[in-house]
Amino acid sequence: MIKRFIQNSLPLAVMGVLLYLLYHALFSNPTHEMPSALLNQSIPTFSLRNVLNEQQILSDQSFKKHPVTALNIWATWCYACRMEHATLMKMKNDYHVPIYAIAYKDERDAVISWLKKRGNPYEMLGLDNNGDVAIDFGIYGTPETFLIDSNGRVLYRHVGALTEDIWLEKLLPIIKQHEKA
């Protein structure tokens, strides 16, 4: 009788453990809080032509000009990127935060048209046609935003669309803290 109970209960116990592990993996770490291997590390070395002025280069050295710079990795084909665009414009216009960007697996003409239609929040925008630079940053998809200090170190990584709440509660305090330092 005990043997039969164990035989009948074992599959349920195993299934319970697997469901718990799945639940924990899916819900214990909100998407925008995904850890980054680059946190407190230097950004990868890269060099991309500026979409709007091909004589200029966006590189890992570009971030040395400001105490903190936002790097937004996005694409014209990305729905969530459309949703966050108003927040990026507000960051630029109301808070004067320097924002650089990488257009991920996109076309130059599509990017230019998109920015003309919606406005350009970026100081410089590199075109990463094949996605190699974005992959070096460890992105999972678009959009993702990094805060980078003047030494080229990643201070924070946000996965997903930026909202005004995320801007005010997460990014702005980090920027203020590093501007004072």
Write the layout of secondary structure elements.
Blueprint (H helix, E strand, L loop, with lengths): L1 H26 L19 E3 L7 E3 L8 E7 L4 H17 L3 E6 L3 H11 L5 E5 L3 H5 L7 E6 L4 E6 L4 H17 L1
Parallel strand pairs: 3-4, 4-5
Antiparallel strand pairs: 1-2, 3-6, 6-7
How would you sum up this structure, described in words?
This protein has 181 residues and is α/β, with parallel strands linked by helices. Helix content is 42%, strand content 20%. The protein is built from five helices and seven strands; from the N terminus they run H-E-E-E-H-E-H-E-H-E-E-H. The chain has helices at residues 2-27, 79-95, 108-118, 132-136, 164-180, and strands at residues 47-49, 57-59, 68-74, 99-104, 124-128, 144-149, 154-159. The strands form two sheets. It has a five-stranded mixed β-sheet with strand order 5-4-3-6-7. Strands 1-2 form a two-stranded antiparallel ribbon. The longest helix has 26 residues, at 2-27. The radius of gyration is 21 Å and the shape is elongated. The mean pLDDT is 87.
Structure summary:
This protein is α/β, with parallel strands linked by helices.
